[in-house]
Each structure stands twice: as C-alpha cells, then as structure tokens.
Amino acid sequence: MTAPAEDEAEDARNTRPEQAPKRRALAALIAARERTALLTSCVDDGELVAQHSPLMSPLVWDLAHIGNQEEQWLWRAVGGREALRPEIDSLYDAFEHPRATRPSLPLLAPAEARAYAADVRGRIVDLLDQAPVEESGPLVESAFAFGMIAQHEQQHDETMLITHQLRKGPVALTAPPPPVASGSCPLEREVLVPGGPFTMGTSDEPWALDNERPAHTRMVAPFFIDTVPVTNGAYLSFMADGGYHDERWWHPEGWAQIRRHGIEAPLFWRHESGDRWLRRRFGATGPVAEDEPVLHVSWYEADAYARWAGRRLPTEAEWEKAARHDPATGRSRRYPWGDTDPGPGHANLAQRHLGPAPAGSYPEGSSPLGVRQLIGDVWEWTASDFLAYPGFRAFPYKEYSEVFFGPGHKVLRGGSFAVDPVACRGTFRNWDLPVRRQIFSGFRTARDAEIA
Questions:
Q1: Whole-number Å distance between alpha carbons of 308 and 312
Q2: What number is the average pLDDT over the span 255-259?
Q3: Contact present, 433 and 408 (Cβ < 8 Å)
Q4: Structural domains in the chain, sorted by start
Q5: N- to C-terminal Cα distance for the chain?
Q6: Could you give the CA distance from residue 229 to residue 442 in angstroms, rounded to a whole number?
Q7: What are the backbone angles phi and psi of residue 427, rounded to the nearest 5°?
Q8: What global pTM score does this model have?
Q9: Are 66 and 87 in contact, with CB atoms under 8 Å apart?
C-alpha cells in the first residue's frame, strides 16, 4: 500500500496537462467552501440573520450571495444552463442594495441558503469536469472563471471574518497563535530599494483579475522602506506623543473624521489605566501586544503616523517593487520569496491564525532585499489612489474594478491573515475608502533616498 504523498505524486504524474487547471480550480473551490461552512456554522441562526454592524451584511446574505454568484458565472455564463433561482438575483446584487439595507430584504433563511449554495456547488463540480479549459475563450481558458469564483468566495470569507470581529458576544472562532519568530539577530529598521525600472502588474498570471493587468514598466526612484510593518509599540509612541491631538500630522479630512467621531486609538482598542491598552479580537479581550503589526487603522491614521515619524506611506509602485523586484536578475517575482505558491513558512494567510504574527516573522517569506511580511498578516495602506493601469480592460464586468477607480479609494497591498493564498499574490490589488478601520489593515512607512 502506497503512502498518501506517493499517491499524490503518482496522480500528478498521470494528470494530463490540460487537467491541471481543473485540479487547481477544484481544490480552490473546496478550500473556499470549507472556510465558508466554518464561518457560518460556528454561530446560531439568529446570529446569521442579524446585522452586527451597518457596515456589514448579515452573514446569511454573504452565504446566499456566494451561491448566487457561482450560479450566475459558472452555471449560466460558462455552462450555458438555465437559471436555477433567477428571482433572487436582485436580492444578492451588491450594487443594487447597500449593506445597511440588506436585513430588510426577503432573504433566504439559513437552511434554504445553505441548501441553495450546496445545490449550485454540486452542479458546478460536474460542470468543471466537463468544461474545456484550453483555447476556449478568456472566461474559461485556464479555468479562469472557476478561479475567479474561488477568489470571490474567499474574499467574502474575509468579509465574514470582519463581521465576526464586529459581532458582540462570546467567542465563536478559535485558532492557534502564529509561530514564534525565529532568529535572534536584530533586523535593520529599513531597506534601500534601488531606483530604476521594474515590471509592475502581470499579463501571464492565469487567475489575475482585471485591475492587476497588464504588465507594464514603471520607473521608481530609490527609496527606503520599513523592513517590517509598523508595530503596536511604535504606534503607541505616536499616541503617547499626542498624535491624535496634533492637527499638524493629519490630512484635513482625516482630522475632521477623528474629531467628529472622537477617535483616539485603533479600532477595538480600549484604554485601561496608565499606559496599558487592551484590544478585543473575535470576542476575546487581552493586552495590546507591542511586537505585533498595528491593526484596524484607517488610511488617515496611517498617513498621520508616517508624517509624525518624518516619513511617508509608500506608493503602490514602490510597495510592489519592494515585494517583487529581484535586483540580481531584474525580473519581477510572483511573490517576495519567488514564484512558488505560499506555504505555511512563507506567510500568515488563510485564517490559520486569527491575528498577525510578531513583526519580523516568516524569514522564509522575505524579499530579495530582506523586507519581511509583505504578504499576509495585515493589509498595507499605500499612498496611491486606486487607478487603472495603462492598457487596462475591464473583464469580465466593469463592476469588479472600473467603477471604483478614482481618488475616492486608496490602494492596500499584501493581504492579511484573513486572506487565502488564492486571492493574494504580489500583483493583487485591494482598495477601500480612507476612513475604513474595520478591515484588517496596517501599514509600513517609506522615505526618499538622498541621491549624492
């Protein structure tokens, strides 16, 4: 009897090349559904239908929306099959109904939502087995549409985890802490990224979404970037120095925002006494860990800290060059560590740990220049507005990216502990309003390099 690993290797050797995208797609769909099931089964039906914040949908809306998107794009668009539940399309249209109003809609009840999502998934597994994935048009080639839907579900899994963080009540989710950072050598505070051109974006990543495309050359001046994300300890120094009460550091809109809402600390922090701060995470309250990357800060807070520190937020192009550019070869990697898919030693991803790892963790995931934790742990705010790349083409629908382009949204990069690897890579772009704090957002800073 062969060992499981040997069986897998034999399967890989016997798999025809055209089957590889299907195998990857099936694995991604299964992983996403397992996470969805956990996030929606750890609380009772009352918690599923409740709205825990006007910023978020009821969890049951996300569950049925996942099934509806899968039906629309895979069952109907790819498979050409007749609609299963066309009458619910408008209920689960994210653009038709703002999150704050979704609880008033005639949504599917939890049992019906689960049954609907399961029915769609069973049909899609059969469809994937039959679908051609080579020379079949951009929606099906390399199983793109199946990968797009797996990414969509994992993005909603992150959204549902945010809802769990906002939910009041006892602990419903648990996970082991991240591994302790290895090595005792102190890290340099910052790394010099040399100036010059690099390839930004991608034209050959098969499941890259439209805003990541096409690959193009960017010129970037030399700059320094933090080796690790800004920590709670560093952020506490900003707070202790009166950072939230000094208008000098703040963008005018950010200053108005913190004054209007009385913001004096990252979201979910509570001052206990003296210099002691507590933070709430998924129903559990504990002391703020000074060595962890700061979490749940808005773009305005990140920008204010950077100004206070005499630095700035990196631009999106600077962030990507620090994460992907290999000075030795001049090429851009898929990830900071190379082209291989993320493993547990590279980054804190996939909700394996329900919080960021200490700064300096995951040395295996370092970039060629030694920058750490560029992937996973916390989404990192950049200085850049969310804009199209030169040659951008909306695909397969404008509402994924194009309608958000402009100065209203800021770019975040790198993913967080809540992101699955299928929806996170060196070219992946996230965006949000600069006031957002409920998301798993942090940042690192940069500064211009003095040119002799």
A1: 9
A2: 98
A3: yes
A4: 16-166 (1.20.120.450), 175-180+188-452 (3.90.1580.10)
A5: 67
A6: 7
A7: -100, -5
A8: 0.94
A9: no
